[in-house]
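Running co-folding for S-adenosylmethionine.
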Amino acid sequence: MTSRERAPWMALVVDVPAAVEEELSAEIGSDALGVLVERGAKGWNVLEVCLPGDADVAARARAAEASLAARGLSPGGRVRIRPIEDGRWVERYRAALVPLPIGDRFVVLPSPRCEGTGGREPLRIVPGRAFGTGEHPTTRLCAAALERAVRSGSRWLDLGTGSGILAVLAARCGAGAVVAVDVDPDAVEAARETVLANAVEDRVSVRLGSVEALAGADLDGCVANVAAPFFLARAGEIASCLRAGGSLLSSGVLAAEAASVAAAFEDAGIETEETRTEGEWAILVSRRRGA
Ligand SMILES: C[S@@+](CC[C@H](N)C(=O)[O-])C[C@H]1O[C@@H](n2cnc3c(N)ncnc32)[C@H](O)[C@@H]1O
């Protein structure tokens, strides 16, 4: 998920049917540095998944083969590994990016050259720096839930901010103050850039760290796109950031994990009102008891 400059970059090159390109791109390219798509012939496209040089590329190739096999496709010869020698993947990746609608109101513009908003409000991000381009279902689930939950002037925490996309979106939805935290220094740097690019620095502050720094903050809401084990381990600390009746939007959770996360929340005094899904991913929409 991080993008410290390391050389050489590696590319996992995978031939995929155009009909399932998007879902395979999300699956195979999950937490990669970026994915380029090249249109191929006869209904097939080529995904170029950019990975840092120290990634376990062989394991990623096996996972890609398994993804193809799971869709009844023979993986033979369809997954290849090669170094990216010119080191210019960032430029190529950015050039390939297009505006991406997110939620009901917004469109993510991942490049300064992207201008088409289709009547939506633009969110600018710098891609290739941290997770959170708007492509992943969990980011999209969080964005849509934030649009519904954020009230004017409310105080929010974006826990695991990545690129900062959700913190900016919360501010644009009317939050009066948003604290964005991440344990990854690269993400913190990327989120600060995103905040500046969207001119919301008066309402969003970005910090290195996690939930413990916000204990007792009495927040109106928290959006956290992290992972089920994190929620299982830290439900009590998350509850302690929220005021009674405060909202919690939790994703990074597989639909199959949602019930166990809801049970951990219940033990911590957080009631889950709704679970929404996109594909295999879920978001829990919850509230701290006691309002
Ligand atoms: C799936 S990304 C979400 C990024 C962005 N919020 C989004 O929705 O697209 C998860 C982020 O959580 C961060 N993270 C992981 N463990 C964390 C922890 N214990 N506390 C805070 N952030 C954490 C990761 O560094 C990563 O940037």
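Result summary
Confidence is low (pLDDT under 50) at residues 1-7.
Residues 1, 130-132, 138-139, 142, 159-162, 165-166, 181-184, 187, 210, 225-226, 230, 252 surround S-adenosylmethionine (CB under 6 Å).
Job closed.
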